[in-house]
Amino acid sequence: MKIFARAPGKVIITGEHFVVHGSLALAAAIDKGVLVEAEAFEDIEIISKTFGSFSSKNGKVPPFFEPTLEAIRATLKFIGEKKGVKLIIDSNLPISSGLGSSSAIAVATVAATASALNHKLSLEEIVDLAMVSERITHGKPSGIDVNVAVYGGVILYKIGEKPKQIKLNEDIDFLLCCSGIKHRTFEMVSKFSEMKESYPNLFSSLVFSSNYFTKMAARALINKDLTTLGSIMNFFHIVLSRFGVSIKELDNIIEKALEAGCIGAKLTGAGGGGCIIALPKSGESSIVANRLKKEGIDTSIVKLPLEGVKVWQEKS
Ligand code: MEV
């Protein structure tokens, strides 16, 4: 029996980095993601369409496969299975670009592994098992990327709390513009945290502000109040830059997005490379996206909301 599981990548609309320190953050699933095909097998075999393959028979684990392998092992242990699985991983998410590629791999892997062995996991169980993999990749992640990949849609997330789904009154388009520059999330997380040592009071006030503005951003998103949402996004970008997690390439793309007619724009995810999101005026996403593409900027339209992890069986 062949099982397929698909999990989406994500954009963070507000609150990245601050979320690691206890702020709420607002994030959404995107229509790029990871597809995992799985079947029961005697060992564990992982084939990545991009990064080659690994078999548990062959001993040494290449670093790319280690988080995935540990997520599989944790899943097998949790469901009490002695058998293994063979997985084929296919992703159209760029890695190390702030779009939640490692989380989407982990979530689709866990869901596909359990299903291929006839076990149904709850969404909470998928989150917990995928976090095994994320801790290997990122150290101490907040868990926001995994929660978006599992629940999909638009979520308000705070460490230690169940994510709250945001129901939009109308569809909203964002633009996603990627620099093609790769980053390491854990390095950016530790850079961001430097200010905590030097200016602890300013730091905790900004975590409070992030929480406050994220709640406002969620309300603005629900009511399609683009002026408020765009204003909050612009402020977040400048604050994140002050923390050293933007780079000039991202600032330049943001400048172009605003010049092309967007109301707001900010980096999304860990920064240090990766992508920005920009908010076009209502009905203008295609026009503005084309203007940015003409400038040579890798731009796509993200239509919200989109679904979370999905598992299905191959029709025979
Ligand atoms: C990474 O997608 C988001 C960060 O806030 C890190 C985290 O939440 O674990 C930068």
TL;DR of this structure?
The chain folds into 2 domains: 2-166, Ribosomal Protein S5, domain 2 (2-Layer Sandwich), CATH 3.30.230.10; 172-304, GHMP kinase, C-terminal domain (Alpha-Beta Plaits), CATH 3.30.70.890. A hairpin with a 6-residue loop joins strand 9 (264-268) and strand 10 (275-279).
Q: Explain this structure to me?
A:
The chain is α+β, with helices and mostly antiparallel strands and 316 residues long. It has helices spanning 66-79, 101-116, 123-138, 144-151, 185-198, 200-222, 226-242, 248-259, 285-294, and strands spanning 3-14, 25-41, 45-48, 52-55, 84-91, 154-157, 164-165, 172-178, 264-268, 275-279, 298-304, 310-313. It has 2 domains: 2-166, Ribosomal Protein S5, domain 2, CATH 3.30.230; 172-304, Alpha-Beta Plaits (2-Layer Sandwich). The strands form 2 sheets. Strands 1, 2, 3, 4, 5, 6, 7 and 12 form an 8-stranded mixed β-sheet that branches. A 4-stranded antiparallel β-sheet has the order 9-10-8-11. The chain binds (R)-mevalonate.
Q: Characteristics of this structure?
A:
2 domains, Alpha-Beta Plaits, alpha+beta, eight-stranded mixed sheet, single chain, Ribosomal Protein S5, domain 2
Instruction: Provide the CATH top-level class of the largest domain.
Output: Alpha Beta
Which whole number gives the mean pLDDT? Answer: 95
**Which molecules are bound in this entry?**
(R)-mevalonate
Q: Between the first and last Cα atoms, what is the distance in angstroms? A: 9 Å
Q: Number of domains in the coordinates?
A: 2
- Proportion in helices: 40-55%
Succession of helices and strands = EEEEHEHHHEEEHHHHEEHEE
Record field, number of beta strands: 12
